[in-house]
Amino acid sequence: MKAIGLYKYLPIDHEESLIDVNLEKPVAEKRDLLVKIKAISINPVDVKVRAPKGKQEITPKILGWDACGVVEEAGSDCTLFKPGDEVYYSGSITRPGTYSEYHLVDERIVGKKPKSLSFAEAAAMPLTAITAWEGLFDRLEIEFDENENEKKTILIIGGAGGVGSIAIQLAKLAGLTVIATASREESERWVKELGADSVINHHHSFLPQIQKFGFSQVDYIFCLNNTDQHWESMGEVIAPQGKICSIVENRKPLDLNVLKSKSVTFVWEFMFTRSMYHTPDMIKQYELLTKLSQFIDDGKVRTTLKESISPINAENLRKAHAMVETGKMIGKVVLEDF
What we know:
2 domains; 11 helices; Quinone Oxidoreductase, Chain A, domain 1; Rossmann fold; metal-binding; alpha/beta; 7-stranded mixed β-sheet
């Protein structure tokens, strides 16, 4: 089967940073599905794993996690899906990735593709949607209840990116008042289209900006951009007994004393945790992707696809990685068809 992989970890402008390879087609066993890939999307994690380093692979390393396709085979222990089902998912970071014609994935982290979306539109969603859902409802423990959240406010830092684009929509569905950050005219327009009530610039202190909109504090913060840079500002605007969730690793020690007097909760979100450690609640990703499909088909959530490239090959993947590396992506870039 066709696949795109790497042997060396090189800058993306190097022609060997991602290369076309041929691999043996895998076979589905136990709870694995063998999926024929129709479309994939590129995330910052793809870029981070591929980033230059001294390590060299003996066999091709296949990256990629987001995918949408059709079930070709179902393992003997599968109960959720059958051959012919159209699915979307984000795989496990501990297994070979989705830059391949066929891909093995545990059915417990797979959802049925939204009927109203194309394969490309659906492929843009899983990793960012899982991250947004888990961050909001599992880590920040926000109730999915409009009445409960009527007077509650969330600050989403990095609202125009892949995760932010979903988080804004889900937070609005849950009844929260959403303040999103964006630093350019086009990204500000995008977050407003998605439902953000107010927009501030994450390159400046948060407090004076939210005060202009009549807020002195926020109940929740979802940090999707540079935890180190925003740490002091987050501590300043979070409400007493509020909660902060971040998906961006810190590069220097974080002073937790900033949160102490307010008894603030700080928690990480990493969407690969469940699949990486085979946690007992691993099936929750199947459940949330299924709910998301319904929200999409009901017109309550929209795809975050902004650009589609075809076909899926090394040259086009290098282009997509370069786009994501700029850090200025709005929404998602997708590749479709081998």
